[in-house]
What we know:
alpha/beta
Amino acid sequence: MTATGRAAVATGADQPIELREYPVPALAADEILVRTTVAGLCGSDLHIWRGEVPPLQPYPSVPGHEGTGRVVALGKGRQHDTLGRPLAVGDRVAYSYFVPCGECWLCLSGTTGCPNRYQFKAHVRADDPPHFLGTYAEYMLLHPGQWVFKVPDGIPDDLLAPVNCALSQVIYGLHRIGIWLGDTVVVQGAGGLGLYTAAVARDMGAGQVVSIDAIPQRLDLARDFGADLTLNVAETTKEERVEAVWELTGGVGADVCVEVVGVPGVMQEGLELLRPGGRYLMMGNIVPDVSTDIIPHDAVRRPKQLLGVLSYDRWVLPRALTWLAGAQHRYPLDRLVSRRYPLEQINTAFTDAEWAAQRGEVARILIEP
Length: 369
Ligand SMILES: [Zn+2]
Ligand SMILES: [Zn+2]
């Protein structure tokens, strides 16, 4: 008898998610099969579910891209992780949720966001083998070329769930924009990405971190993640916030501003609170066709670098894991994850995530397949 596993299956945008049972796939030589222990519910999963961004896979499909698990089977040609360390059945692993092709103009130019990075699943429906291509399922099949790294001992699974998306995104973005020792870094948004940004920027050498959000509880948490100053958009005007940042920097302006709030309208404020020569990193606005007005002068006559960053490079994941191992003792990372749902309650998990997002809760919802 073939072994089977359960998977959550999305049948269409804004439709209830179903549970289906599929045979566990036989492995090709370069594949790895992982038993997912915990999966994260990310903002982009909500956007996809609501139909706001194009899905990565045709319906019906198994959603979920954040997660971690243990190796249950290794293909003959896949006995090591991406750093060449031996992998064995039972090892905990973290992996990228995309597979850059390595052969397009972007890949050859060293740019992330390869247009073919979801090719391995872009045409696969959930009912067709190998079925298990999302983290909201008991199993996850890792493809040839999909980066996979052994997880160091001592990091709880819960902290690992967002490592391959939110945390790696933040680490790569901050690397690209560059943090100088002593920089003043303003973070627009104190959700999961914003809190990671505060802590990682601090650990990369930021001298001062300013966190901006509309929810007092998030701003309290931001202080525990390294923010020296918090500004509540519900209680201050844009002019007051810009002035507060200028005052904090002796009339100079911030060195770096990071947009991780996903609200287009914050961009002009970012330009105004940056110093001439300041750097603006944009990672939050992933929904297409929403616009905002900016005053280009503020980026030219008071010059700025503007950088949008999508996904990350292969070196990021192992460093993210190393960072987590130490940072979990310095920052309350466990407060980023709270509620957990079994796979059969995935619809409740999505509805609750929607509510939690509206209420401004930070805690990520976890699914335990
Ligand atoms: Zn994500
Ligand atoms: Zn490519």
